[in-house]
Amino acid sequence: MAEPDVVIIGAGPSGTVAAALLAQKGYSVRILERQQFPRFSIGESLLAYTAQLLIESNLMDAVCSAGFQYKNGAYFVWREAYSEFNFADKVTAGCPFTFQVLRSEFDHLLAREAARFGADVRFGVEITAMQPGEQPVVTARSADGEETIRPRFVLDASGFGRTLARLLDLEKPSAFPPRAAWFCHVRDAAPAGLFDRQKIRIGINPVRRDVWSWMIPFPNGVSSIGVVGDPDYFARFQGTNDERYNRIIDDEPRLRAVITDGQLVREPGEIKGYAANVKSLHGPGFALLGNAAEFLDPVFSSGVTIALHSAKLAAQTLDRQFRGETVDWESDFAKPLMFGVETFRTFVDGWYDGSLQDVIFYRHKTPEIHRMICSVLAGYVWDPANKFNGPTSKRRLHALAAWCRDTRTTPMPEIA
Ligand SMILES: Cc1cc2nc3c(=O)[nH]c(=O)nc-3n(C[C@H](O)[C@H](O)[C@H](O)COP(=O)(O)OP(=O)(O)OC[C@H]3O[C@@H](n4cnc5c(N)ncnc54)[C@H](O)[C@@H]3O)c2cc1C
Questions:
Q1: 110 pLDDT band (50/70/90 cuts)?
Q2: Atom 17 (ligand 1) nearest CA
Q3: Would you say residue 416 has pLDDT above 90?
């Protein structure tokens, strides 16, 4: 059998979108996915820029037809404070809405679409070894045995599997402290109008500002609920799944008021120490996409957005390389990708040190600043025109937070 141009490890969103883009350019692409689909995955709330990328990849028609929950923004709740962001207010041009999705269905749909564009998608095949180089060599294992493949390039889209980071010694610890997430699906059965099903609800624990919860409504009266805190926080909640569920939710009184006695419809899961990093995003004959490279934190639902943007940049760079152009994976792929990742990193840091929370709940933001923050929350973090994006975002966010805390009587400053 002819060797493919590209082997993609993993059929999560980064892998299938990269495959769809490359297949549409006429390249032969083989996705090797170790699991059988549909399979559960965490990460159900998308950002508006994800939808923009789906449009650009010709995948949006299929996603729109699937009946996922429409999403147009986010709201934040802390004690009596409430702050709402509508993606339509964002400053960057692009799609202003997105979806809240069961990832089992969403990922399966994207895999089918990639196949429709011509990608060869194989399930139950695990990559177990890889030799980098101008002609990379990949070893794949399935129920049929072991196979060696010699593609022209390998894209690692294996998410938390972190295949090439492990195999090629690229792992680097994350600078974020270890955190843990507890999550489940609940029949919220909330009466219409009690809360906005078209937005993700982010609630901050009334006592500990570093502990927060998500509520991601689906269209069928079910919501994804999750709580994030340091691993010690969860040690106090003991008992059966039901007992732990009730104790964890009781510690979030305002969330409890929304879901009342909503019953579990999916057994809870837990994941710890998920933040991860790598020494390099690329090497001879390969590049890393999405979570196979770096994962920051769930708080801004940035994971799938970064996954899709990395897929777009990699497909563009690879297309130029295959057409004989000289490409530099550091300046053509890694650096542009990290511009937006740094924005999210600033926002995650600011979330946990409290500065971003002060900005979010400050009620007298100028419309311009509200729109710039809204753009980041909508996922448009690669727009250089937004002053809160890129490597200087930290300085600007901290200056703004200091102003929100201390000098509320003077007019809000211009952001330089
Ligand atoms: C608690 C928590 C909450 C989150 N919430 C959100 C959210 O609301 N919104 C959001 O956008 N993101 C969220 N994320 C992040 C999101 O889950 C990921 O960023 C996203 O799934 C990354 O997509 P991906 O394509 O890179 O990898 P994945 O979706 O993880 O897909 C990787 C695929 O590779 C396969 N694979 C792994 N190893 C191999 C191998 N060796 N060979 C073959 N196949 C392999 C796996 O089976 C898997 O199917 C959250 C993360 C956490 C931890």
A1: very high
A2: 43
A3: no
Whether the full predicted model's pTM is greater than 0.90, yes or no, is yes
Q: What is the mean pLDDT of residues 26-37?
A: 98
Long-range own/partner contacts, residues 263-267 (CB < 8 A, 24 or more apart)? 263/186, 263/187, 264/184, 264/185, 264/186, 265/185, 265/186, 265/187, 265/222, 266/184, 266/185, 267/184, 267/241
**How many Å lie between the centroid of ligand 1 and the Cα of residue 16?**
12
CA distance 95 to 93: 7
Closest CA to 158 of 253, 62, 18: 18
Looking at residue 145, its amino acid is G
How much distance in Å is there from the Cα of 159 to the middle of ligand 1? Answer: 4
The whole-angstrom separation of Cα 24 and Cα 37 is 23
Q: What is the pLDDT of residue 364?
A: 84
Pair 278, 217: CB distance under 8 Å:
no
Q: Count the residues in the chain.
A: 416
Q: Where are the alpha helices (DSSP H) in 323-390?
A: 329, 335-352, 355-361, 367-377
Q: List all residues whose CB is within 6 A of at least one atom of ligand 1.
A: 9-15, 32-35, 41-46, 126-127, 157-161, 163, 181, 226, 271, 274, 289-292, 298, 301, 303-305, 307
Residue 405 has a pLDDT of: 81
Question: Look-up: residue for tokens 């511009």?
Answer: 339
Which residue type, as a one-letter code, is found at position 319?
D
What's the confidence (pLDDT) of residue 408? 54
User: What are the residues facing 127 on neighbouring strands?
Assistant: 140
pLDDT digits (tens, 9 = 90+) for 190-207: 777 778 999 999 999 999
